[in-house]
Amino acid sequence: MFFGTFAVMEIVHSDLESYLEHTTDEENSLLKMVNRDTYLKETMPHMLSGHYQGRVLSLLSKLVAPKRILEIGTFTGYATLCLAEGLKEDGLLHTIDINAEQQERVQGYFDESPFADKIRYHIGDAAVILPTLNETFDLVFIDADKKRNLFYFETIINQVPSGGLILIDNVLWKGKVLDSKPDNQTKQIIDLNARLAQDKRVEKVILPIRDGLFVLRKK
């Protein structure tokens, strides 16, 4: 019975995701290519933000109209390109990833986009690179190694002005945050969520999009 119920839930989720994608704006041709290439060439393509979440990120960025964006965790650049859609004309986006093997291909996507001169792609450890970025960020998207999410948040919070947004991905962790006996990685995410829920510096809400998106607005 459990496995049958689980299979039905997976089908419903897939159908719902398809419905959401068909009732939002389409991906442009470059995003479709990044999506396709990621599923063909990457061993963990599910890390891609994807069509629906990408449109959410784009819309949030356009609502903020940021002059500066920071992204921690580039992967194949899909979310980067979505976030860049909201940049002001003189805006700039810094994105950081530790995987040098993807650099040439991902940089190629950026070069093909209308935002080629607005994206600064950093390869290396974010903990090392962040202190070198002497910027104020109107929008931050954290989607990297989950065990350091709280460190990234605390590192960057003072560089976000009042009204700025910090977005943290994967905060529902496939529903494991509800487990009665969570594993260590899930415990770290539960702890992060609990700490952010009590943080008086930000207004906050978790959107149940894909694997959970924490939206935090600096007071």
Automatic annotation (TrEMBL):
The keyword Chaperone does not apply. One of its GO terms (molecular function) is caffeoyl-CoA O-methyltransferase activity. CDD domains: AdoMet_MTases (cd02440). InterPro entries: Cation-dep_OMT (IPR050362), SAM-dependent_MTases_sf (IPR029063), SAM_O-MeTrfase (IPR002935). It holds the Pfam family Methyltransf_3. Its EC number is 2.1.1.104. GO terms for biological process: methylation. Keywords: Methyltransferase, S-adenosyl-L-methionine, Transferase. It is an enzyme of class 2 (transferase). It comes from the Bacteria. This is Caffeoyl-CoA O-methyltransferase. It comes from Sphingobacterium zeae.
